[in-house]
Write a structure and sequence with these properties.
Elements: H1 7-26, E1 29-30, E2 33-34, H2 37-60, H3 62-69, H4 75-101, H5 106-166, H6 168-182, H7 186-205, E3 212-213, H8 214-232, E4 236-241, E5 250-251, H9 255-266, E6 275-283, E7 289-295, H10 309-322, E8 328-330, E9 335-340, H11 346-349
Helix pairs in contact: 1-2, 2-4, 2-5, 4-5, 5-10, 6-7, 7-8
């Protein structure tokens, strides 16, 4: 708030208000000193200006102050506390100048200092109250915008995940595999139908969920891999070794499926060049765990047209969920995507 373009207009208005307020309560006596009209107006205006500008400089350097203090205290509190010291110096300086100008006695100086501190602190408190209101209004607007963006991205991501499974190519390939199995191997065909239904059931049941236990996502991937394996045979290998202790963490639905789909879409999958996809846990800091999807790079000679919505949606969703840019992508020598696992309580699961 202190750095707004119209700040000098606000300073002038606050000075006029303060001048009128003092005039109606104590007449021309400012800080216990009867001042001439011009000096009275100048003194009030200068004091208000200095209090405002001091707070503006503090606000501009607030980041450095917080780093120096290594403090997690709310920035508004730090700003206010530091402003008290600065404003006290300003008020004391004004008192010294005025009492020296009029050569007043010691008792008059202490009265002027007391009144100057009271007036300056009142102006400072008023400005910080307005600043806090502006701060939280802006923060509320940002939260509203982010929530709206997440809602839109979530809809796009759910649609993208579902579409990637229902697209004609996938459905045609699945039905083609099923057709070849029905008469040749009825038992395998029945198993194929079961896994196909598991895939669609998972996608339909979880399309409204923001997070899902990793355990359920891996079960879904097992069914999804079964369908892919029947099509690609030994040309595709997907391996995952996830510790049981990590399976109770949470992940956005269809995250792993989108990453596997992305790998298959952009790489050659053949007997000569089998595609190997590994899913594993990367341990970082004590409270941070990431699930990693890694595949060998063997780009198709002619790449399919891609909007890259899958990776963009994953990055956007996890940036919102983690409060920071959380998805890491490495493009050489292998293609690697690292996605954070989220630890939630049972209550948060349904929140």
């Amino acid at each position: 708030m202190f750095s707004v373009r119209q700040r000098y207009l606000f300073i002038a208005l606050l000075s006029v208000y303060s001048y009128v307020n003092i005039l109606l309560t104590t007449g021309h006596s400012f800080l216990g000193i009867n001042l001439p009209e011009p000096l009275f107006i100048v003194s009030v205006t200068v004091l208000v200006l200095l209090v405002w500008e001091a707070n503006r400089l503090l606000q501009r350097n607030l980041g450095r102050i917080r780093v120096f203090l290594r403090s997690k205290i709310h920035p508004l509190i730090i700003h206010f506390v530091f402003s008290l010291f600065v404003v006290a110096i300003i008020a004391s300086t004004i008192s010294i100048i005025l009492t020296s100008l009029y050569q007043l006695e010691k008792e008059a100086f202490w009265l002027a200092l007391t009144l100057s501190l009271g007036f300056s602190f009142r102006i400072n408190l008023f400005l910080h109250c307005i600043n806090a209101i502006v701060f939280y209004m802006n923060k509320y607007k940002v939260v509203q915008i982010e929530a709206e963006q997440l809602k839109q991205q979530s809809i796009e991501a759910r649609f993208d995940a579902l579409r990637s499974q229902i697209n004609p190519h996938f459905l045609f390939n699945s039905l083609n595999v099923l057709y070849s199995l029905v008469y040749r191997d009825p038992d395998t065909a029945a198993r194929f139908i079961e896994q196909l239904s598991n895939v669609y059931r998972y996608l339909l049941n979880n399309q409204d969920q923001k997070l899902i236990p990793l355990r359920e996502e891996l079960e879904f991937i097992n069914s999804y891999y079964y369908l892919l394996k029947m099509r690609f045979q030994e040309n595709l290998n997907i391996a995952h070794e996830i510790p049981e202790t990590k399976k109770d963490y949470y992940i956005a639905p269809a995250t792993l499926q989108l990453l596997i789909e992305n790998a298959i879409k952009h790489n050659v999958v053949s007997k000569k060049n089998p595609l190997d996809i590994k899913i594993y846990i990367e341990n970082g800091k004590p409270d941070i765990n990431k699930i990693v999807v890694e595949n060998n790079l063997q780009p198709k000679p002619v790449q399919e047209v891609s909007s890259k919505l899958g990776l963009k949606n994953i990055k956007s969703r996890y940036t919102f969920l983690a409060g920071r840019e959380a998805v890491e992508i490495i493009t050489a020598p292998n293609f690697i995507v690292k996605v954070p696992l989220i630890k939630l309580s049972y209550e948060n699961e349904n929140g």
